[in-house]
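task queued by scheduler; priority normal; single chain, no ligands, no partner chains; default sampling; output format set to structure tokens
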Amino acid sequence: MGIVINNVAMLLLFAMIGWLLAVGGLVKHEHAVMLSRLLVWLFLPAKVFASFASRCTPAYLAENYSLLLLSVAVLAVMALIVYLAVPRFVKNRDEQSVYKYSLLIANYGYMGYALVESLYGQAVLLDMMMFALPMSAYVYTEGYRMLTATSKVSLRKLINPVFVAILLGCTVGLSGLPLPDVIEKTASSASACAAPISMLLTGITVSEFRLGELLRQKGAYVVSAMKLILIPLVLCAVLSRFCTKETVVITMFVYGLPCGMNPIIFGKLAGRDCRSSTAIVLISTLFSLLTVPLCLAMVDFFFTI
């Protein structure tokens, strides 16, 4: 548990450093755009490519395709519940979109991948990436439509750096061709930057608003409690009845982490006020220092009763 807390605390420290740099004027808010592009176009694709290229073999797919089926089922049920429940309590449509997305999608790509790799290694990281594939498809189709208020889902959004990296990594892994040493080391070095840069970006984004104003957003506490405690508790209780412990742990790291940053990123594209989405990201990220270890302890509890 100490290892989990230390890893989460390290990521939160990077977010605090980003906030301090921005508040101190050493980093400007427009620099966040550059960091975001580096994350989307280089660092996260490098991490995904490295994992799939090294471990995605025909035998692996034959043994683990059930992860995809389980993920689609969980996402479908979760989306149905969230889409029906949120409009009953939130009347503003923009707020509805932020709440729906935040309850469904966690910061599994930047924060989750780093935690799983450091705690469990590359093999479990690849399992998590497989489980997260339906989530990624949702993010760039329905998620993008919802947060930018566009009228239709665009499948062209699936052609993005992360999906291209997955395809390239699968091609290399399934072919069995060894990667040149220089490419393997370059991908490994670039992937190591994903988590620190993403948390620095979180801190810089938060600095655009006054902390007191963000901390007074009551709805952010409700969303954070549901995202970090209620949803993991329900999923853990249900899935522990018929899934392996590793699968439940992966589910916790996909659904039980702080809320993702896309409501801020996509919201800015649509010219929306990102105050509530920034508050949700800030508060859920702060509370995750306590709730991530709690989720893993919850998994241990359900597998011992």
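post-processing summary
- The chain has 14 helices and no strands.
- The longest helix spans residues 58-89.
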